[in-house]
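Need a sequence for this fold. Nothing fancy.
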């Protein structure tokens, strides 16, 4: 979803597989959160240690908190994974290492 003059947005295969399972309302809420990230890439909390360079943006949908991991540079935003907090970091670390 490239914008006129904004960063190019890409997604990992993991992110794509998870989003494919979302319902229409969940996808609409996710699109809104991605727009927020595009407008302010520093919105997410920057991680430390072995997740350095990754940011995690938290948002709520139907009383559930979701975490969206991404990395951002001037030219590109890479959407890495999304999910609930349960086992999120364990699964995420397994994916990137």
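Here you go.
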């Amino acid at each position: 979803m490239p914008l006129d003059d904004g960063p190019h947005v890409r997604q990992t295969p993991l992110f794509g597989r998870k989003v494919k399972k979302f319902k229409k309302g969940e996808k609409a809420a996710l699109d809104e959160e991605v727009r927020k990230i595009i407008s302010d890439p520093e919105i997410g909390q920057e991680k430390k240690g072995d997740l350095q360079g990754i940011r995690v943006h938290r948002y709520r949908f139907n009383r559930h908190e979701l975490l969206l991991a991404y990395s951002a540079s001037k030219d590109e935003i890479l959407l890495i994974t999304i999910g609930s907090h349960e086992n999120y970091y364990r699964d995420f670390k397994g994916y990137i290492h």
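For context: Strands lie at 8-11, 45-46, 55-61, 64-72, 76-84.
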